[in-house]
Amino acid sequence: MATTPARDAERFGLRPMGVRPAFVPYLQQLWQRRYFIWTFARAQVDAGNSQTRLGQFWQVLNPLLNALVFFFVFGVLLQTRKGVDNYIAFLVTGVFIFTYTQKSLISGSKSIAGNLGLIRALHFPRAVLPLAATLQELLQLGISMGVLAIIVMATGEFPTWWWLLLPFALALQTLFNAGMALIIARLTARVLDVGQLLPFAIRTWLYLSGVFYSMQVFAARFPDWFQVLLYANPAAVYIELVRDLLLDSYTSPPWAWAIGAAWALLFSSFGLYYFWRAEETYGRG
Amino acid sequence: MADPVPTVIVDDLNVVYRVWGAAPRQGGNSPVDALRRIAKRESSPVRREVHAIRGVSFTSYRGDAIGLVGRNGSGKSTLLRAIAGLLPANSGTVYTDSQPSLLGVNAALMQGLTGERNIVLGCLAMGLTPAEVDAKFESIVEFAGIGDFVSLPMSTYSSGMAARLRFAIASAVTHDVMLIDEALATGDAEFQRRSEERIKELRGEAGTVYLVSHSLGVVRQTCNRAIWLDAGRIVADGEVHEVLDAYVASVK
């Protein structure tokens, strides 16, 4: 019997390299790397600010300035506060929650292309990278939420028991963001041009998500079926949920929690699956 | 002697890089040209393919230390990455019994972080658990031998110090198949001696070592076998002195 490399390999129990693991073992490997995800995300946040004079204080300053700009344009110049009681708190909540999804998407899109060196040097489930990108933005959100709590209280709201539900709303949004980051990471790894289109898509999404105007007032002039689409928009749903919890005068539609949970489950599970399907191709030039 | 035990079998391996942005030196790359090509469905000259490894086959056995030699761009580093399973092959297969590991954590380290945090990050990146990192931490700091600098950001290090830290982190883990890319030519004379010793230790613990180096002296000292690559093909594969003598003769 002639020996071929494949037969030799089988005889000595060697396995082919670079083959994608099955989905469940892949998830187990990912779980084993949870400390790496955590440390990598923390390191990215700290390294990003380490060269500036104000250092980690930028993590607070950044969302604060962001809120100020939006208030100046939409609150002072354009007066879009129609039908909203506490407009400052309403606006800042919307901006911070939308920014979390926006930044997760952008970080996710860079997570494969920006870490090719790492991918070509070490073995790990590549989903570590988009997940660390999402976690990095979650850490930033934690600080933004502290700033938000102060702004909201300064505008006359009092902390209620409802505030204790905030982590659940943010957990749902995080699952959704992670799913989006995984999907966009695979798309951008294949075609870098997607990363160029992303800012335009995100800006359109921003204007449709009721960040600076009340969705109730805005949606009312459209036909019913379009109102459903507007309300089902994941970004709008998570913004509505957090506003409902934080602002006494604000009420979100009763089905917002159900839709928020559905988007979270759908996107996180599909995102993982979709990203895993191309696992062996990441790192190709 | 009993049959040698293979650790890595490379079967007709081909690796192709797709390169974007390889624009010609003159003309043909303005936005107007790009639009015209898209409209006419012509393929872009900006996209090129670089065939880095062309049909390479060989088998390495337990106890082998293999030096890869060849000119710049001959495919040595690409071959190492393909063996490690880090670069997807276009055709052909690499078979191994365990996960070959590339000695290199450069990419995981961050300039803005302290040496200490980079040690933890690098070790976690290589797949250690936090408990294992704790256990190895002191010996990594000691081996790097950069003193108090370990608590300063890596951006303050000299290139030699950064290289020491990288090597100390990367060599903290032993694997059955070790792939080493030019790691020896860094640091001062004293550190080079220590890292050569460390490589010998690793060789003892590992089943098979692959070494890419332009220092032929190091390859002669460390390896028993050499593979000479040129333009992605194997020119010679055999006993280290024979292959290196032929390589040196061809370069002169």
List the helices and strands and how they pair.
The complex is a heterodimer of chains A (285) and B (252).
Chain A (H helix, E strand, L loop, with lengths): L4 H7 L3 E2 L6 H10 L1 H16 L8 H20 L9 H25 L4 H4 L8 H27 L11 H25 L2 H16 L6 H5 L4 H9 L1 H13 L9 H21 L9
Helix pairs in contact in A: 3-7, 4-5, 4-7, 5-7, 5-8, 5-9, 5-12, 7-8, 8-12, 8-13, 12-13
Chain B lengths: L5 E14 L11 H10 L7 E14 L3 E5 L6 H8 L7 E6 L4 E3 L11 H11 L4 H15 L14 H12 L6 E5 L7 H17 L2 E5 L3 H7 L2 E6 L2 E7 H12 L1
Parallel strand pairs in B: 3-7, 3-8, 5-6, 6-7
Antiparallel strand pairs in B: 1-2, 1-4, 8-9
Helix pairs in contact in B: 3-4, 4-5
Task: Describe what this molecule looks like in 3D.
The complex is a heterodimer of chains A (285) and B (252). With 285 residues, chain A is mainly alpha-helical. Chain A contains 13 helices and 1 strand. In chain A, 69% of the residues lie in helices and 1% in strands. Chain A has helices at 5-11, 23-32, 34-49, 58-77, 87-111, 116-119, 128-154, 166-190, 193-208, 215-219, 224-232, 234-246, 256-276, and one strand at 15-16. Chain B is α/β, with parallel strands linked by helices and 252 residues long. In chain B, helix 3 packs across helix 4 and helix 4 (130-144) crosses helix 5 (159-170). Chain B has helices spanning 31-40, 76-83, 115-125, 130-144, 159-170, 189-205, 216-222, 240-251; strands at residues 6-19, 48-61, 65-69, 91-96, 101-103, 177-181, 208-212, 225-230, 233-239. In chain B, the strands form 2 sheets. Chain B has a 6-stranded mixed β-sheet, with helices on both faces. In chain B, strands 2-1-4 form a 3-stranded antiparallel β-sheet, with helices on one face. Strand 1 of chain A pairs antiparallel with strand 4 (91-96) of chain B, so a sheet runs across the interface.
